[in-house]
Design brief:
Blueprint: H1 2-21, H2 29-38, H3 42-59, H4 65-85, H5 89-94, H6 96-112
Helix pairs in contact: 1-3, 1-6, 3-4, 4-6
Length: 121
């Protein structure tokens, strides 16, 4: 069970860090155009990236696991809301699978337990 929960956590952390670190690479023209349509400035884009990386790191620790997932879910809902406001329904729909993961992960981990949680009773 610890192997399965460890794999799930690593996938979640990988997604969070890869999405967050993308803001530090040179953005493409279409990416910048999409961000400007959403009303996201360059500074805000960097803050969202740092927010994503921070939330992913919180998921690694048992005591902050739930908080990290909720922060990621809030960030994804915010991005979906901005996309809908901008009229970009396709972008909002693409984010749905990414929203499901931080909402379902805490429920799965209640059953599987966090792999880094100590076994002391």
């Amino acid at each position: 069970m610890k192997i399965i929960s460890g794999i799930l956590i690593l996938i979640s952390v990988y997604i969070g860090i890869s999405h967050g670190s993308r803001v530090f690479s040179k953005p493409t023209e279409t990416y910048l155009q999409m961000m400007s349509q959403l009303g996201i400035t360059n500074t805000t884009r960097i803050l969202i990236g740092v927010w994503s990386i921070g939330a992913a790191i919180l998921i690694l620790f048992p005591k902050t696991f739930f908080l990290g997932n909720e922060i990621r879910a809030i960030q994804i809902v915010l991005m979906m809301a901005l996309a809908i406001k901008a009229g970009n329904l396709k972008f909002a729909l693409i984010e749905i699978p990414f929203l499901i993961m931080p909402l379902i992960m805490p429920l799965i981990m209640i059953y599987l337990e966090h792999p880094f949680k100590s076994q002391t009773i």
